[in-house]
Amino acid sequence: xxxxxxxxxxxxxxxxxxxxxxxxxxxxxxxxxxxxxxxxxxxxxxxxxxxxxxxxxxxxxxxxxxxxxxxxxxxxxxxxxxxxxxxxxxxxxxxxxxxxxxxxxxxxxxxxxxxxx
Length: 117
Fold this sequence. Notes:
The protein has about 120 residues and is mostly helical.
């Protein structure tokens, strides 16, 4: 099954309350609730574009695929790129664990990663 998982991207971008963040960005409470609960059956292209612009991502980054069975045939499908395993630990939390003496080096590495694309 393919579903919209925008909460993952919102948290990756460092926003703690996805519902509040989306409302601040112009989405109605109802639209936010439906998108965040995973009960979306229709996504308008203008909403999808708005989300991608806000979160600096592609539609693929917002989608998640769960196969019916994890067989080798299923996992070899192009859809397998949309598999999201495990939970995401926010970058902010990871940065908090870095000793202050190494924060400059972490920032340099992050800048390099951003330039690669």
